[in-house]
Specification:
This protein has helices at residues 5-21, 23-29, 43-59, 64-87, 91-96, 104-119. By secondary structure, it is mainly alpha-helical.
Length: 123
């Protein structure tokens, strides 16, 4: 059921206010700014990975060449999926790819320094 003119006006006002108050959030989740350069959220690469896995399982016992081709398909599909996930700024992939905040490396180096100072002096 389509929205009435009044409902569309209210929705448009809500979007404008959201954009005014939190521009970064609005840009991240706006339907206009959703950019998926290589198709829908990587489903093609997942299908290619599964096809390569099936080819590997079915043919490795009889033909090492076909099994290796299946493994190569799996490897390329995985690399392409990860590359797409890193280049796409969608919220679904950010949880998969781990923390990318700027100070994360500093936390690891601090933890390594403390572990070395605690356990590194032992003989």
């Amino acid at each position: 059921m389509p929205l009435s003119e009044e409902e569309q006006r209210i929705l448009h006002e809500m979007e404008e206010k959201l954009y005014e108050h939190d521009r970064a959030f609005a840009d991240r989740y706006s339907s206009k700014s959703q950019h998926r350069p290589h198709g829908r959220s990587g489903r093609g690469w997942v299908v290619a990975f599964v096809a390569g896995f099936v080819l590997l399982l079915v043919s490795f016992g009889s033909s090492v060449l076909l099994g290796s081709l299946g493994f190569l398909i799996m490897l390329v599909a995985t690399m392409a999926f990860v590359h797409q996930a890193r280049s796409t700024d969608s919220p679904g992939f950010s949880g998969l790819m781990g923390s990318r905040r700027p100070g994360a490396g500093d936390e690891w180096s601090e933890m390594r320094r403390r572990l070395r100072s605690r356990f590194g002096n032992r003989s």
